[in-house]
Amino acid sequence: MTLAFLLVFPWIAPYQALAVNILVLGLYALGFNLLFGYTGLLSFGHAAFLGSGAYGCGIAIARYGLHPALALAAGTLLATLIAAVMGALAIRTRGIYFAMTTLALSMCVYYAFYQAEAFTGGENGLRGINVPALALPGFSLNLLDPVVKYYAALAVVGVAVWLFSRLLSSPFGAALEAIRENEGRAQACGYDARRMKLVAFVISGALCGLAGGLQAIHLSIVPIETMHYATSGQAVMMALLGGMGTFFGPFVGAATFALLQDGLATVTSHWQLVVGAIFIAFVLFLPLGIWGEVLARLRRAGW
């Protein structure tokens, strides 16, 4: 159902470029939701993975002229490696200490990329990520056409979503939910909770890194704000708006956030204040999120 909706989404969204942005943000929120919604670990550092994926992909294209597919793989690999290091340090803590540790480590990554001006462009960001066409065996895709760009991105996101669904339906996915519900009991059942949390952290970082690479290709630039802690807050907001621990919720949350931002930014320069108030209202009155509330009502109706 998720992929069926995404196939027709460019014709529902106000314009195709916004649909691409929602698709990328949805994948970013999906990666975050694996750690937060399914494992129960609140991270404030996921901007490090989105940003490192974007910079890794962008540098590979702008500085070294790699094929976009190879550049996307390079950005995802960089984000995965950073997630492995951050995860190995962060999972030694719990609760609010875990959240604060991820925030501190994320800011370390932010300043490392900020100082590497020769590669990242520093405060000006990385520019020159020009991918007018995607050369594939036998044909070429015109990425200047937003519809073509959307479906090219959807092919990548579709594979990631399918792998994510296989992961959740596997014994590993069930073990993550057991850790979320009661880590002590999960350990008593023989699960290595620390190792599983680390694997979940790394997979979450890889998905966010893939989203970052797609964002770099989509925007043709990587602003340094991509790695700022405020971007980590957006992942939390989208997961809660859509529905924490639901499969389709991250995309609903991403669409809600992006549509609010796009619509309100044309009305007022203080759109963040309005979005923040709406977010607080959702937390107070719809704690399950939009999609989570829909699923709860369907269950109560016997569907």
UniProtKB/TrEMBL annotation:
<keyword id="KW-0812">Transmembrane</keyword>
<protein>
    <submittedName>
        <fullName>Branched-chain amino acid ABC transporter permease</fullName>
    </submittedName>
</protein>
<feature type="transmembrane region" description="Helical">
    <location>
        <begin position="69"/>
        <end position="90"/>
    </location>
</feature>
<feature type="transmembrane region" description="Helical">
    <location>
        <begin position="150"/>
        <end position="168"/>
    </location>
</feature>
<keyword id="KW-0472">Membrane</keyword>
<dbReference type="Pfam" id="PF02653">
    <property type="entry name" value="BPD_transp_2"/>
</dbReference>
<dbReference type="InterPro" id="IPR001851">
    <property type="entry name" value="ABC_transp_permease"/>
</dbReference>
<feature type="transmembrane region" description="Helical">
    <location>
        <begin position="271"/>
        <end position="291"/>
    </location>
</feature>
<feature type="transmembrane region" description="Helical">
    <location>
        <begin position="96"/>
        <end position="114"/>
    </location>
</feature>
<keyword id="KW-1133">Transmembrane helix</keyword>
<feature type="transmembrane region" description="Helical">
    <location>
        <begin position="237"/>
        <end position="259"/>
    </location>
</feature>
<feature type="transmembrane region" description="Helical">
    <location>
        <begin position="35"/>
        <end position="57"/>
    </location>
</feature>
<keyword id="KW-1003">Cell membrane</keyword>
<dbReference type="InterPro" id="IPR043428">
    <property type="entry name" value="LivM-like"/>
</dbReference>
<feature type="transmembrane region" description="Helical">
    <location>
        <begin position="198"/>
        <end position="217"/>
    </location>
</feature>
